[in-house]
Design brief:
Blueprint lengths: L10 H6 L4 E6 L4 H17 L4 E6 L4 H6 L7 E6 L2 E7 L4 H11 L4
Parallel strand pairs: 1-2
Antiparallel strand pairs: 1-3, 3-4
Helix pairs in contact: 2-4
């Protein structure tokens, strides 16, 4: 799903789409969160447009953290078609994330 023009998609519009969305709930002060940045960059290179990756700073968006009951960071969540397919807190490797995404997503 591509945006046209300067229209920005809301979070709820993004997770409703057929393209899987991996959300990284993080905080600037969180050491393990900093470890996830290169992992997510590597995952993006491996999967390209098969998955969208979004980072949400829980200090800047506390309502999102509350809505998804994020208790610790980093917390990763995978969404597709408005459904939460998977979630886990902690640091994972790009290869692990790629396998998890491939196991959970539906191909339409």
């Amino acid at each position: 799903m591509q945006t046209t023009g300067n229209k920005k998609e809301t979070f709820s519009e993004l997770i409703q789409g057929n393209t899987p969305v991996l959300v990284d709930f993080f905080a600037e002060w969180c050491g393990p969160c900093k470890m996830m940045k290169p992992v997510l960059e590597q995952l993006h290179k491996q999967m390209d447009d098969k998955v969208r990756i979004i980072k949400i700073d829980i200090d800047k968006s506390p309502s999102a953290a509350t809505a998804f009951q994020v208790q610790s960071v980093p917390t990763l969540m995978l969404f597709q078609n408005g459904k939460t397919l998977w979630r886990k807190s902690g640091v994972l490797s790009a290869d692990s994330l790629k396998k998890i995404i491939e196991q959970h997503i539906t191909h339409n």
